[in-house]
Queue: 2 jobs
Job 1
Amino acid sequence: MKKAYSAILATTLICGSVFTATSAQASTVNTQSVQTEKETETNFLQLVGTVSKITKNENGTFLAEFSKGNETHSFTFDEKTIMLDNSGKEIELKEGMQFTAYVDSNKPMILIYPPQYAPEMVIVQTEETGTVKVDKFDKDFLNKKKDLIITVNDETIISNLSGKKLLASDLVNKEVVIFYDVVLESYPAQTSPSKIIVLESELSDLDQAIKIANEDYYVKNGVKMIPLRLVAQKLGFKVESTGKGAIISKGAVSFTVTRGSLDYGYNKSIRKFENAPALLEPNKTYVSEEFLPLLIDHY
């Protein structure tokens, strides 16, 4: 059977944004300060809205809801999600806050509807002085539209989405978010950002497991089959061969999978696969994709 390769990815949105707030002395937030620049290409889906509700999930993460047209969309976040205000300071997300969330469109994700996103970074608009801009800069630190040049010095904080400290050379020709306030009137305009975040991050084990499932699979009897050992080990499970299948375990959780059998063991219960596990490559057992969410539940 011919092997197929694909990836389930979020839509790539071609846009950029400037996120500005009024001065700290202002009595109201300028809600017209979010602008779209269609000339700037970005690999990040930008979600703009106002948080209507925040709830805590059983796994300790949080779910923030917001309206998009007549539909309610949502995104999940936890303590690892970058939460900053428009001046670059850390902030706690609360209901009623206006935000721009950045979701990596190249990051593998399981698609559901209505969409539920997992942004890498959320910027909250406040009354603090500060502007946020998504752009790319060349080796001379001139942006793509050639209307802004940035000055980077020893005081400029530069990092990626994983929090790794970077050098000025690391931001060249990369998508970045810059935080700045004062702009020198010239052409091109000039500014010295206080903080620069390069929109790159290292994939987590969960992301890598989903990526493997999206790229390394077969379709058998109309069912997508994914590599058991590669996915399970990436999610932290121990995989022991039984000769006819495998025992997958982590803590008190255990699965027993047998090639050619629709039945599999889940602790002391018996469940059924949609398609029987099969050895589709030498020493490589594949199981139906329905097994992946079950493994993720115990990640």
Note: Confidence is low (pLDDT under 50) at residues 1-40.
Job 2
Amino acid sequence: METSEKRQRGRPRSFNGPSEAASVQSLDRALRILAIVAEGSGLSLSEISAQSGLAASTAYRMLTTLENHGMVEFDGTDQLWSIGVETYRMGAAFLRRRKLVDRARIVMQELMEKTGETANLGVAEDDCVVFVSQVETHQAIRAFFRPGTRSSFHASGIGKAVLAHLDPERVAAILRRAGLERFTDKTISDISALARDLVAIKHRGWSVDDEERHPGMRCVAAAIFNEFGEPIGGVSVSGPTVRVTPERLADIGPLVREAATDITRMIGGHSSQGAAEASLFEVSATRLP
């Protein structure tokens, strides 16, 4: 008895082919299909077949095998294939096992070699940034932050990179709690000036700490994001102002941004889209205690 057209969207018109022996090629095809299904929000068999470049009968064979393992699910009503709960569980297992410091180390090493300056890794806490790892340059004069060193959000490159990607309300709450302490003559302690700086940071993807925490030290940083697109910390390059000159910022900035993107990808994260840049100016209206 011939199946209905609605049913044919989820299964081929006829499926009588013998099952294939397990092979690397079959695994490759199955993983390709899994990735296609994961990117969609419910796909028909014909859509999966077209995107994978596989015959409908082959794609169906892969899908039913994945379905048996809970990796994909088939909606008999809509005749659509979607990602399954077991795929989520496997992804969650990876997220539990990830080690930010370990995964970032090789990227930081490459960043230090490309820039010739010390690379730092920091994580965001409730009211500050905590430095957790560092790859030092071979230069005699260099930046040094002992693991566990804390720095204010508004007076550090990583801190400002994180703030630039938070909602204005969250930024306002942090600044109310932590304040805008002035550490040097260049610390940004004016809320309006900080708001403008955050807009610029979000626009270009990297921040600059221009002697705002330590005189004679300049830092370039970019944010690292988790699986929800939330900034959880950042990576930075820091060094004396005689080497990290304003003229070098245009070269160092993109390198740091690329390093942050690599680390984000390594931990299963993705960058945030965030609110409109102009909305960050709402922060300037915040009243600090």
Note: Confidence is low (pLDDT under 50) at residues 1-7, 17-22, 274-279, 285-289.
